[in-house]
Amino acid sequence: MDEFFIYLRLGFDHITDPGGYDHILFVIALCTVYTLQQWRQVLVLVTAFTIGHSITLALATLQLIDYSTALIELLIPVTILITAITNLFYQEPRSRLQSTTPSPNRYWRYGLALVFGLIHGMGFSNYLRSLLGREVSIVQPLLAFNIGLELGQLLIVTLVLAIAFVVLDILRRSRLRWVLVVSGIVAGMAISLILNNELVAGK
Fold this sequence. Notes:
- This is HupE/UreJ family protein.
- Keywords: Membrane, Transmembrane, Transmembrane helix.
- InterPro entries: Put_HupE_UreJ (IPR032809).
- 76% of the residues lie in helices and 0% in strands.
- By secondary structure, the chain is mostly helical.
- It has one domain (2-14, 22-201).
- Helix 3 (39-61) crosses helix 6 (108-132) and helix 4 runs antiparallel to helix 6 (108-132).
- 35% of the residues are buried.
């Protein structure tokens, strides 16, 4: 049981680590267009991302799939950039009722989160495999690590929605401006990660 909580903590620390902020940026980009009142939509979105990264995290950790680590490290910021760019085309709801009702033409965001989750799962597995070493059974560490990731992810989502609530509902700032500013910052940081990737920089 002690080992379970060790890996759970490692998973939590990994996704919330400011030093490895690429996954944090992606979760921020996913949630930026939503408000606290839309938490159900955010839950579906995060669940799609969770399903995606859980699949490839398990497959890659169990060494059932093989891939280029350098390529995955490049694709992760690419997913962040694409998500942030889609946010720039966000259209502010005309009413509060409309803002809490999922728009049929936005269901593609759930599919996008699922697909991008597959890529992030391979990124998570790089770290987990380095921790496992010569572990005889990796099922329990894999489960604990994944749960830790989810707890960290939920913390990030909660913080983003809480900040959005303060900015939009208390300070009464423009929702469109909030989306554009946050997405623009995230996109800029993603571009920096892409340019510094070893495949792009030729290191």
